[in-house]
Amino acid sequence: MTFVVTEACIKCKYTDCVEVCPVDCFHEGPNFLVIDPEECIDCTLCEPECPVDAILSEDDLPEDQQHFLALNEELSQQWPVITEVKSPPADAKEWEDVPDKLKLLER
Predict the structure, then answer these.
(1) Res 47: pLDDT
(2) pTM, entire model
């Protein structure tokens, strides 16, 4: 099992989760974070840190978020590791409850 960053993170990109990760499995893209499923040890520390509830266990992924498991795996191989908290985008609050953000994902 692994944890998965879902659509809620897109354009919000809060990084509270990365600081608590003991294995540095988070990777950062332009407007989204992902978890490397090969590195994740299922410790659950990151899940409660996300202010927009964008991190879920793969076992708890809703049907409409299942594709984020493969997306996390793919992008974690391309993006650099992030280990320290950074300031969120200036407009992050505006994006917190916006649905259907996948089309806004920047690779």
Answers:
(1) 98
(2) 0.97
